[in-house]
Amino acid sequence: MQSKVYDRFIRYAKIDTQSDPRSESCPSTKKQFHLAKELVKELNGMGLEDVTLDENCYVMATLPSNLEKEVPVIGFISHMDTSPDFTGQSVKPQIVKNYDGKDIILNSKKNIVLSPQDFPELLKYIGQDLITTDGNTLLGADDKAGIAEIMCAMEYLTENPTIKHGIIKIGFTPDEEIGMSAEKFDVKKFGADYAYTIDGGEIGELEYENFNASLAKVTISGRNVHPGTAKNQMINSMMIAMELHAMLPVNERPEYTEKYEGFFMLMGFNGSVEESSLAYIIRDHDMEKFRKKNELFKKAVEFINAKYGKNTIKLDLKDQYYNMKEKIEEVKHIIDIAEQAMIDVGVKPLIKPIRGGTDGSRLSFMGLPTPNIFTGGHNYHGKFEYIPIQSMEKAIAVILKIIDGFARG
Description:
Elements: H1 2-13, H2 32-46, E1 49-53, E2 59-63, E3 74-79, E4 94-96, E5 104-107, E6 112-114, E7 130-132, H3 141-159, E8 168-173, H4 187-190, E9 194-200, E10 205-207, E11 212-221, H5 237-246, E12 263-271, E13 275-284, H6 287-308, E14 313-321, H7 325-328, H8 333-344, E15 350-351, H9 359-365, E16 372-374, E17 386-388, H10 389-408
Parallel strand pairs: 3-8, 3-9, 9-16, 10-15
Antiparallel strand pairs: 1-2, 2-8, 4-7, 5-6, 7-17, 10-16, 11-13, 11-14, 12-13
């Protein structure tokens, strides 16, 4: 199994599928079809049924039941795109066999080193085999590791038809990294009662709580005149932007928060005297606190407009997604089955809130309860990304054990 998941992941990682938040098309980049078409070919080769690839780059497939009784239909979902924030072109994965706990030289020419001094969790994997980058790109374990793990699990079931299972649905989506993968996901067509995204981090992660999220886009209008005659005439939009930012609580920024603590994060700032634009994300697990954060932001904008003029700031504030805990707790047994599956294969469950979003959030509110399970990867979205092969093997084992859990009822 190790060689299969390694080979499969390496093949997927080398296919550039970087998404683009500036694009208005779906998928945001046509190159995501390259991986999608490869997956369709492999799914058909395994003998899965109803294998489809639609015009928006969503791949779906079905492994029919071999049971005589009816059991819930379960799905496994991963995304094909990689982060737009770091290049996914010309990915050249490297393997470190039997990791010795020392520094790993990713790129000697650029002196790029993956060190346990910077990333102490590396020491958990002494004696294991790690897949790393070459220091020039991300690795793409988010979420090509999840795809490889699902594919290996399906291959194992098709090669071992005596293993009993119900109907299994497979879904691979585009554009998760830009928050659009659930946008055109056809829950009815998918046809699962419950699903799991294989899109978490380190081994053992089991997540069914995520942030409530909103996006605030701010446009500030100023007035540009020559600085020599600026007194009582100039309105510097950048200074107003700084004033607005200073009104938000300093200790509620990502760099000062953890666990269930929410935050305001400035994501982008473009400015001149005449006009400035800012983008913020607002996050909190607790809905009441989330609403209060949104109201605080609105009040800060209202204060600035009262001070400098009615239309000084234009605010576009929209909710993005909500905490899936509300939907998952109604069917908590799907968490219990996943937790027991991990225990059964020798993995310690790490049940914790996601400090971010997940496909499962949108899907859960679309009628498909979908918690999140680990892939095994670390340091996503950058050149220090790595994944232990043994963690990938355990993810496959967990998928198979979840399937067994539903088959047994």
